[in-house]
Amino acid sequence: MSLTVVGSIAFDSVKTPFGERDRMLGGSAVHFSLAASYFGEVHVVGPVGDDFGESELSVLTEHGIDTTDVERVEGGDTFFWRGHYDYDLNTAHTDDTQLNVFGDFEPKLSEGSRSAEMLFLANIQPDLQRQVRAQCEGARYAALDSMNLWIDTARDSLLAAIGEVDCTIINDAEIRELTGEPNLARAAAKVMEIGPRAVIAKQGEYGAALFTESGFFALPGYPLEDVRDPTGAGDSFAGGFLGYLDGEGGDLDDATLRRAMGYGTVLASFNVEEFGTERVARLTREEIDERFEALRAMTQFEVPADLP
Amino acid sequence: MSLTVVGSIAFDSVKTPFGERDRMLGGSAVHFSLAASYFGEVHVVGPVGDDFGESELSVLTEHGIDTTDVERVEGGDTFFWRGHYDYDLNTAHTDDTQLNVFGDFEPKLSEGSRSAEMLFLANIQPDLQRQVRAQCEGARYAALDSMNLWIDTARDSLLAAIGEVDCTIINDAEIRELTGEPNLARAAAKVMEIGPRAVIAKQGEYGAALFTESGFFALPGYPLEDVRDPTGAGDSFAGGFLGYLDGEGGDLDDATLRRAMGYGTVLASFNVEEFGTERVARLTREEIDERFEALRAMTQFEVPADLP
Question: How far is CA B12 from CA A24, B63, B105, B137, B232, in A?
Fold first, then answer.
């Protein structure tokens, strides 16, 4: 089994009340692929510039991630984002975005990336998402992320892209904005009418909710006393979620999707404990499974003995 | 076993995007006691004015609630609140508050109310909460709710009141404000240092989280496609939570507290489906247990078979 992700590979400069970092490795495809790498084979697709060195690339290759489709654009600069968070770590404040090589990105997938069984279209322009979806015809399960920028500026393309995937993973505020429906359950139902069999509403520190045809499932965020940098948490969630699904193979029934929600929650929680990719890059599968079991212990309860 | 609640008995005028009601029965003690009435004996303590009629009182007495300590103040008017909600139903906008008979309220508990085993101090001035706590010396479990108004204007009294209860049930933003700690897990730990063995963070549509010495538990809000009026949801949560605990007797161990969180979540969900007390007033215990089981089915997941 294998998993392809297309998205941004970036340098991020981030300041939070708990510290700051300048030009650290980031980007949606990076956070996703590191999280997913603990479950199986991952192919990453995205452009970088001359400023992207071997030390950055090796963070990926050391995790066994296939970087064949990390396209180096000569004379170009890597995507750059600068942002900060105040004590409300749910809200990112963007101070600077430089698209750089991402501005002219035309995804061209190698055979290895094209033949993956699962596909994640990270938050990029929806027409690019559709191009990649079309190249990965054989993927039996595809998911996408998006954001308010594309809802505002490329709504029709985004709706078409959503219609071509099995699962939509976006922030709950964006599900409401996309559908014009303030009630989350109704909004998720409207997204499913477009095509996806599953909708995941990411809710920041409150966790995530899964809507499928057969019902509803939700998990709280894993409680942490130290949250240093939430950048990339949503992509690490998606990486844990799809990575686990890819590792499972077979039927993606509701019980499997629920466990995948658990792994997504766990990877997101490791992501936010340190800056950028610092924590997720040095995880072990044992640490992941331990926290998965801890999360399960925190969310289970029994029916009263006297209930009929 | 029995349960006493002190709090407001009110007329509420509420407008939401889904309708409006004028001077309907409301108030924290009313929402709480109706929710708790499905589990056992409830005594309600609070003042009303001449405008509070038999039809209002009978909503309580028809649920078997003891209204001996509903104190009628001659020549006075009942507490009145007018508010509205926009599509973000998590935020109440207050348009008018008339304390009326509540302004001079001095709780005097009858023997029945004083001898209850459990006590809920709904969101009222913390010195009043302490007076009632002192009168209910024998209560083996006491909980309180509060709000930002008392954090701002009666902080020392509130801290003293919190120090005298076993469980604090407040909105998560208020736990952060009270402790000056933006991280919820740390904030809850700080509240427990004041005295309570348990802290419940109410999170609106995102559900509620329970912090105890032995750990963390959280439940999402029950997903509803129709939410009409969130007024009283927090008090219905507390009524379901403490009502279930009271019905259990015995040790209030973590497993029991978790089930109580489930019943709180269920009662809050019924509360918001219609205006004011309309839905909770005509519930059956069977409907409550059915939704409890549905909630459990929505939140459980299994460890993967291949996990060591």
Answer: 54, 20, 19, 32, 10
- For residue B43, the one-letter residue type is H
Smallest CA–CA separation between B15 and chain A, in Å?
16
Interatomic CA distance for residues B84 and B227, integer angstroms: 14
**How would you class A240 by CB atoms within 10 Å of its CB: exposed for 0-12, middle for 13-18, buried for 19 or more?**
buried
Contacts of B61 (CB under 8 A, 6+ apart): B67
Burial of A59 (0-12, 13-18, 19+ CB in 10 A): middle
How high is the ipTM of this complex? 0.91
Q: Rounded CA gap, B62 and B56, in Å?
A: 10
B262 contact residues in A (CB cutoff 8 A)? 301
DSSP A197: S
- Which among B255, B289, B303 has the least Cβ separation from residue A302? B255
Whole-number Å distance between alpha carbons of B146 and A308 = 36
A83, A14 in Cβ contact below 8 A?
yes
Residue in A closest to B300 by C-alpha: A300
Chain A residues closer than 8 Å to B292 by CB: 303, 307
CA distance A296 to A302: 13
Q: How far does the CA of residue A185 sit from the closest CA of chain B (Å)?
A: 5
Partner-chain residue, chosen from B205, B215, B255, that has the shortest CB–CB distance to A298: B215
DSSP state of A104: G
Of A144, A69, A174, residue with least CA distance to A111: A69
- Chain B residue numbers with beta carbons less than 8 Å from the beta carbon of A226 are 183
Per the CB < 8 Å rule, is B209 touching A220?
yes
Question: Measured in whole angstroms, how far is the alpha carbon of residue A22 from the centre of its chain?
Answer: 22
pLDDT at B251: 81
DSSP A108-145: ---HHHHT-SEEEE-SS-HHHHHHHHHHTTT-SEEEE-
Model's pTM, two decimal places? 0.95
Give the whole-number percent of chain B exceeding pLDDT 90: 93
- Beta bridge partners of residue B171, listed in sequence order: B202
* DSSP letter, residue A44: E
Of B209, B223, B301, the CB nearest to A259: B301
For the stretch B26-85, pLDDT in tens is: 999 999 999 999 999 999 999 999 999 999 999 999 999 999 999 999 999 999 999 999
Burial code of B54-75, b = ≥16 C-beta within 10 A, e = fewer? eebbebbeebebbbebbbebee
Distance CA A212, CA A161 (A): 19
Q: Number of CB pairs < 8 Å for A and B?
A: 115
How far are the Cα atoms of B83, B88, B90, B123, B303 from residue B234, in angstroms, in the given order? 16, 16, 11, 10, 33
Mean pLDDT by 10 residues, chain A (308 residues): 96 96 98 98 98 96 98 97 92 95 94 96 97 95 96 97 98 95 95 97 96 95 95 98 92 94 98 98 98 96 78
B252: chain A residues, CB-CB within 8 Å = none
**Of A126, A153, A124, A160, the residue nearest A44 (C-alpha):** A124
Residues of A in contact with B303 (CB under 8 A): 259, 292-293, 296
Q: Which residue of B has its CA nearest to A188?
A: B225
* pLDDT band, very low/low/confident/very high, at B90 (cuts 50, 70, 90): confident
Q: pLDDT band at B270, cuts 50/70/90?
A: very high
